[in-house]
Amino acid sequence: MDARTGVTAGQMDTGLSYTYFGDIIISGTTALVRFENKTFALEMPEALLQE
Prior knowledge:
51 residues, mainly beta, 3-stranded antiparallel β-sheet, 3 strands, 8% helix, globular
């Protein structure tokens, strides 16, 4: 979700039976989203990288 506008930036089907997640770490243009037993590396949308 774009924190500035509240618009959903995208969705991803994780294939997991639960929807909660742990830490989100931003490294450069990559977001690392850690779930209980999986970590996903997501490239940030261009619209979120521009000020």
